[in-house]
Every structure is written in C-alpha cells, then in structure tokens.
Design a protein that fits this description.
Length: 215
Amino acid sequence: MLQLQVFAFNPLQENTYILFDETRECVIIDPGCYDAEEKYELTSFIEHHQLTVKMLLNTHCHVDHVLGNAFVKEKYKVKLFIHEKDEPVLKAVKVYAPHYGFFQYDEATADAYLQEDDYVHFGNQKLKILFTPGHAPGHVVFYHEGQKIVIGGDVLFYNSIGRTDLPGGDFSTLIESIHTKLFTLPDDVTVYPGHGPETTIEFEKQTNPFCAIKH
C-alpha cells in the first residue's frame, strides 16, 4: 500500500513529498528543503522509517521545488528525473535564486527525462506520468491509479490554480491541462498540490473559480 508524507519547506511553503510502501523503497518528489533544519527533517523521516530512496522526481523546476535537489542526489546517490521541456527552467534557477533570497542554492542537473504515459516504478508501486504544461513548460504530475492519488505540483490547488506569469507559463495551456488531464480522472481522486492542502477532482470541478466545469 502506498503511503505518503508531506513536508512544507522553505519560505514559499512548498510541499515536498515522500512516497513509500511496505518494501521500504521510496521516491522523493520536489525537495524544497533549503536550510539545515529542513534537510534534517527530511533525512530523519527516511532514517526513522528505514526507507531506501530509489529516485528523485520533479513535477517542474521552479526554485521552490528544486532547492533540495543537489542535497538529495548527493545524500542518497540517486538520479534526478524531470521532463525535458523543463530543463531550461532548471538551468535558470541559479541565475534568479538570489533574487528570492536563496543565496546558497546548489545547482543539480537532470539525469534522465520523464515521458507522458510512462510509469515510475518503486517497491510494489507505479506512478503514471501525465504531461500538464501551463504553469511551467515541462510540468508533469504523478498519478497512482490504484489509490486514486495525484501528486500535482503547481497545476491545481484547493480552489485555485498555478500562476502563469512566470517564463514559460500560459493560462490557456494550464486550463487545457486541467480539463483534459486532471478533470478526466475519477471524481474521488485526491490531488496533493505543490502548496497548501489537498483537494479532490470532484470538488474542484464544481467549485474552482478558475476552471470549474458547470453542471
């Protein structure tokens, strides 16, 4: 059975996720840990639960989601997987990170690319990759069909959506991603976003002021 642990890291309160199961294999998604205390919180959870980190995944590569990439890669000797279209976004972080106050950002490069409709495998679990651009050009989400869970990054939030005013963002593309990739999932799927509390597909289809589908 898939289990999930979330941490809210860095001043932007980004949600970092650890997904694991009874095999004690795990993946880390969007490590936003920046300072020593946050890195300790992440590693302590992994050590306490005796987890083996199999890979590092980014939904997208904005600064608040990648601050801990280099730390995780070095600490656990794992590869970083992103969508190829977000590689320029990842490479740009070192240029603008100081403008957000992240003067100690340690750059990490991608080792492999995620493709739509491929699967990420760890333990007894598999996550389907859905390509969901709009907030970032190479944004993906990870869907666990068996337990109806989406790790959604900055696409769909509780009664909100990802911002589209950053380089590579596009409002109409984001709405299309939500309607064609997320709102076509079962209504009882839970979305765990990159910021804030979880929500469900049904709730957002009915109430989201930006993208609800009128019934």
